[in-house]
Amino acid sequence: MTPADDARTPRRENVVFIHWHDLGRHLACYGAQGVTSPHLDALAAHGIRLTDAHAAAPLCSPARGALFSGRYPHSNGLVGLAHHGFEYHDDVRTLPQILTESGWQTSLFGMQHESSDPYRLGYEEFDVSDSLCDYVVEQSQRWLRDRTDDRPFLLTAGFFETHRPYPASDYPPDDPESVTVPGFLPDAWPVREDIAGLQGSITKADAAVGRLLATVNELGLDDSTWIVFITDHGVAFPRAKSTLYQEGTGVACIIRPPSGRGVAAREYDDLFSGVDVTPTILDLLGLDVPEAMEGFSHADELVAADAAPVRAELFTEKTYHDSFDPIRAVRTTRYSYIENYARRPALSLPLDILDSPSARALDGSQDFPRAERELYDLDTDPYERTNLAEDAAYADVVADLSDRLHRWRSDTGDELPAEEVGNQIAHDFMARHHQQLRTEAARQDQRSLPSRRPRGEQRELREHSTDN
């Protein structure tokens, strides 16, 4: 959504869109102590660091679908993981599709998790044969150096990192004794080892980003290229990924304008949703934002430091992960309000977290019943531990946020299946998953989950858009 402008002229600017897996905000430039991320820290220092950006959903396909469609998961069709059979609705138009139609050259290297058929994404060309960062950056560098097309371009570089697992042979871990354990996790040795592995993965992926950005600079593209860095959702640790708490939806998002724009580096503290990414990029490029998009453009506010906030609140959702777990939430700068629509344990851990060292260090409280409603005061309780929903002193806050949430659900056509139907859908896709695990190929070391497979052939994807 953006104000109409009859005199809009497209800007022939490029976009390099870099996205990671399962990072949350675990970077030095977001306050994570001891993390080695000098290239992303430098990007933040010379760009616009969004301090309150959130995924529309706390798991991969729904979050990514929202990023690239500007529509919420229940609106675009990706209410669950693509490898569980969920797909975009036929009427969904994506960022690469719109840019291709508008005269941009569009290419994807590496990770995508929005469709079992990469052709559906709308890129002119793609290579999803390998999403490990070294391969992705090597191919992206080659593409940038070899291109002769004079059209502006969208280059998307999707990293498998920092998804689990974190094998030490690929990602030398940090020293567990030196890591800082975030406040939402217990300070136990298995958690420290787990974080050390994550940080080793971050170090490698950050170095790969540095090489890609160096190539952009080497080719003289800085003055005409937007650099957009984002991750899909929160870190793959208990009480983060797959939850609607801040650690589950909060994401690192850094946007560096073309140097030719003369936009000063700064922090952007307003609320920003994953559904806002595509409208914002289109608006920055001078293109119309389709009416079907439910996100808002922040283009004017990003380039003008004194502009009014775009959002008073943002909405997040979860429907399916490895089970049917329907949750909706509304978040303001002060409060987080969550509604849980099925009786579930306090934490419904997805499979990739359930077998992690951090999950094994939990004290059992994750199995307590989950409250139907949750309210947290983010000023005093940033890790969302003290539920105020039944506190009479906050009755007016609950009523207000509940009303906002229900109006948003009504306005966007958010209808959940009956519990028995949702449970059956989840049962069926997990049965297919377990059948797949019985094959020999699926029993590779640490790669049994489709989301843990960085190579397209292992994820049953069409790998290339051409015969090259």
From TrEMBL:
InterPro entries: Alkaline_phosphatase_core_sf (IPR017850), Sulfatase_N (IPR000917). The keyword Metal-binding applies. Keywords: Hydrolase, Metal-binding. Residues 14-286 form the Sulfatase N-terminal domain. Transmembrane segments: none annotated. It comes from the Bacteria. Residues 437-468 are annotated as: Disordered. Residues 454-468 have a biased composition (Basic and acidic residues). CDD domains: SGSH. PANTHER family: IDURONATE 2-SULFATASE (PTHR45953:SF1). This is Sulfatase.
